[in-house]
């Protein structure tokens, strides 16, 4: 027995202000029946003793601790730069910007 009929699909189409052909009504009735059946199967599997979960395996924080590490000094960072100005990388002016 079908969970949703062609007449129900036609009713939903009218409520949604959709003009569907006879072929589309049959097609969507079949598709909606498959979807409703799949949802029913999932509902059958869900048991009271199985707690809801977001992952198949329990997860804990997988990130490492945030620890400060020594970085480069300004001299080290700018050592390979082609041009330096006021302890910064010097780059060509773009888009006609004014200083």
What keywords describe this structure?
mainly alpha, Histone, subunit A
CATH superfamily of the domain at 1-51: Glu-tRNAGln amidotransferase C subunit, N-terminal domain
Radius of gyration: 32 Å
* CATH-scheme architecture of the domain at 1-51: Orthogonal Bundle
Provide the CATH top-level class of the domain at 1-51. Mainly Alpha
Helicity, as a percent range: 25-40%
Find the CATH topology of the domain at 1-51.
Answer: Histone, subunit A
The number of strands is 2
Name the overall outline: elongated
Strand content: under 5%
**With helices defined by DSSP (H or I, 4 residues minimum), what is the helix count?**
3
- Helix-strand makeup class: mainly alpha
The first-to-last residue Cα distance is 78 Å
Order of helices and strands: HHHEE
Largest sheet: 2 strands, antiparallel
Strand order of the largest sheet: 1-2
Mean pLDDT: 86
Low-pLDDT ranges: none
Topology:
Elements: H1 6-15, H2 22-45, H3 74-78, E1 84-85, E2 88-89
Antiparallel strand pairs: 1-2
Helix pairs in contact: 1-2
